Amino acid sequence: MVDVGDTLHPRAMALNGRGDSTGTTIVWSALDTTLRVVDSLSGATVGVLAGTGRLVARAGALHSNPALVTIVAALDSIAAVGPTLDTVTVSTPDSLSATLQVEAFSGGTASANRRIALSLDFPPGGSGVTLVPGDTIVTRATGIAVFQVRLTGVRPDSAVVSASATSHGAPVTGSPTRFVVVFLP
């Protein structure tokens, strides 16, 4: 997947009958106007129009099967869905926050399959807490991605999580969106 205006860098290798690299030069081409190959030797390809495009790698007279590439509108913003503050009364050492949600938008429309980066801003070094499912979440078909904060050790008084997304290498509007989880005894 590539955003309109962003660059994709595909990779290919020509192999002989034994599966060893032949070192043959690979030349890339696009079969559709939704993609534009800007460097046929490196394969650098720009998404031009939202939709689906096909890329082909050629080594001499041999052509690869077309690789399908999804081109999507550039992400323009993210926002919290629901509360950004949760309070957890710690009943066990392995307590979970409520589900926290962030939504991604392209052109004002919810956008699926977008990566949202999470970081624990507090406590320092993330001591005693972890992010579930991890430090990167992906928006579902609804454009919403979900996560939780898990208490895993010595209870801090709170945890602060930042959710961020980028487009064309720059943060989108709403980045970072901050969530706070307060841990009570």
Describe the structure.
This protein has 185 residues and is an all-beta fold. The protein folds into two domains: 2-72, Immunoglobulin-like; 77-184, Immunoglobulin-like (Sandwich), CATH 2.60.40.10. Helix content is 0%, strand content 50%. The chain is built from no helices and 20 strands. The strands form five sheets. Strands 1, 3, 6, 7 and 8 form a five-stranded mixed β-sheet that branches. The chain is elongated and about 70 Å long. The protein starts with a strand and ends with a strand.
Describe this structure in a few short sentences.
By secondary structure, the chain is an all-beta fold. It is built from no helices and 20 strands. The protein has 2 domains: 2-72, Immunoglobulin-like (Sandwich), CATH 2.60.40; 77-184, Immunoglobulin-like.
| Helix/sheet category | mainly beta
Number of structural units classed as domains = 2
Count, helices: 0
Strand portion, in percent?
over 45%
- Radius of gyration, CA atoms, in whole angstroms: 22 Å
The number of distinct β-strands equals 20
Biggest sheet details: 5 strands, mixed
Indicate the topology.
Elements: E1 2-3, E2 7-8, E3 27-30, E4 35-37, E5 45-47, E6 51-59, E7 62-63, E8 67-72, E9 77-81, E10 85-89, E11 100-106, E12 109-110, E13 115-122, E14 129-132, E15 136-138, E16 144-151, E17 158-164, E18 166-167, E19 170-171, E20 177-184
Parallel strand pairs: 1-8, 10-20
Antiparallel strand pairs: 2-5, 3-6, 4-5, 6-7, 6-8, 9-11, 11-12, 11-16, 13-15, 13-17, 14-16, 17-20, 18-19
